[in-house]
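Project standup — Tuesday

K.O.: blocked on the structure for the chain from last sprint. Re-posting the sequence here as requested.
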Amino acid sequence: MTNIMLAAFVKVPFQFELREVPIPQVKEGWALIKVQACSICGTDLHYANHLATEWQGFGHEIAGVVVAIGAGVTNFKEGDTVALESGSYCGVCDQCRNGRVDLCNKAPNFWQNPTMGFAQYILAPKECLVKFDHLSFEEACLAEPIGVALDMTYVADIGLGNEVLVLGLGPLGLMAIPLAKMKGASHIYAVNRSGGKRADVAKKLGADTVVTGKALSEIAFRKGGVDRALVSAPPRTIQDAIPVMNYGGIIAFIGIEFGAGAKIEFDANDFHFKKLHLRASHAAPAIYFPTVLKLLQDGHLHGRDFISHIMPLTQMGEAMAMMRDQREEVVKIVIQPWV
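H.V.: unblocked you, prediction finished:
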């Protein structure tokens, strides 16, 4: 094996470079992974537009093969196929010992690596490795974003018979549709500001009513409103969801915005007297991988439903531009570093 690999780097404003760099050296407690697939996340767009003030590696939705292990790595071996959690829990802090591993993200992670998933190899701590079998690498790399969508459905506490609004049909909103169905939603309203491929995919995934280009106030909800809302659209849409919530409804929200768009206003009296809940879903640590991989393996979820494009690492810049400029026609783009 040569000691040089190809890796992608990002810098504001929306700049990308491919470089030949040294393959990371394995170290104690870590494993070297040959990356076979890494999908693009909306967070990657935030890095390109706002966060990466200096050149840095990126990509965190990863599946690959273990090619070397460091001292102390006893539960994996060379040749294992693994998906990588983007962050994990330590297992020893007070939160973990009180059974709230979901509130700990103190385990080692790869976010400070000079190169990450959009590269031919990545160095990852053993805590972030999850084995899988009987899936393609392209499907397995979706464990991370599907786990994020699953967290959103848990936060919303969807129950049997709930009427559910999915607001925003990006990848997370689309992934939430079949998950909400499995949790017992009786009717799912999938709402997006525009149509295109994402609206078609929403119907395929089980949305009962798909609405595009309409205000929520224009929708004829069966019960006058909805019991649960899963919001993965910009933060300003939270204030649009509040009026259509039924009494005692729960809004689960995941999303990032910068500048004035990060702030919203709503009528606190309306919120109070309708006994509503607004809950943030932030899947750090990135858990639920075994559940998600099992759902994919057993065919309860079909990874290919979410993959609209597969592109080589050499087209990283083009892929990111598609994610930014062709949202109606792009769901998930998976990058293959070895093509």
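K.O.: great, moving the ticket to review. DSSP finds ten helices and 16 strands in the chain. The chain has two domains: 4-142+306-336, 148-280.
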